[in-house]
Amino acid sequence: MKNYFKNIYQAIVTILIGLGVTFRHLFVRAVTIQYPHVKRELPPRSRQKLFVNIDDCIGCMQCARACPVDCITIETIKAGKDEDLGTTSNGQKKRLHVVKFDIDMSLCCYCADCVFPCPTECIYMTPEYDFATYNREDLLIHFAKYTPEQIEALRQREQQEKEALAKAKAARLNAAASNSKKPDSNTAKS
User: Is the CB of residue 83 less than 8 Å from the CB of residue 129?
Assistant: First the structure.
């Protein structure tokens, strides 16, 4: 019988201790935030999602070479001789069409090694950290602005230029070879 009342006493004391803890925290400022309605402010040098200002990209591929996990894929096509692609915001002339600039954020290790070698400072880390998706393919970010038809037209033009250069080089080599095979007029007479 004594044990029965002891258990009732311990149950009431335990409940009162729990209510006391709850009552104390009613008047203390909350340490949690109501995410996603309230977002925590990140430190200014925090590393989050990558962004590329493709208008300033010159296609030098230094960011792709610096990436330790190969999450950056760049494809360029050389501009034509009389084609003007404009300049970047810091005055560098653009000589390549950047037809593909993809970053796979599922592979990115957020090291920011790609940011520092960029000569035009067009790739940088943004403070955006809320980009979770249900599909891994959605983490592949495309920055290039070219349509598939434009890319195909540029590739055909580049191929035609390469063929024309190869023909011109072959013609020069044939001309040089035929000049070297002609007998010298002085040696032929003697």
Answer: no
What is the structure's pLDDT at 118?
94
Is-contact 63 33, C-beta < 8 A? no
What pLDDT band is residue 181 in, cutting at 50, 70 and 90?
confident
Nearest-angstrom CA–CA distance, 48 and 124: 9
Residue 171 half-sphere exposure toward CB, CA atoms < 13 A? 6
Instruction: Yes or no: say if 96 and 77 are a contact pair by the CB < 8 Å rule.
Output: yes
Query: For residue 127, is the peptide bond before it cis, meaning its omega torsion is within 30 degrees of 0?
Result: no
Q: pLDDT tier at 65 (50, 70, 90 boundaries)?
A: very high
Cα dist from 153 to 43, 44, 60, 102, 150, whole Å:
45, 43, 22, 20, 5
Q: How far is CA 118 from the centre of its chain?
A: 12
In the predicted structure, residue 182 carries a pLDDT above the cut 90: no
Tokens of 58: 């010159």
Distance CA 96, CA 123 (A): 17
**Got the DSSP string for 83-101?**
----B-TTSPBP-EEEEEE
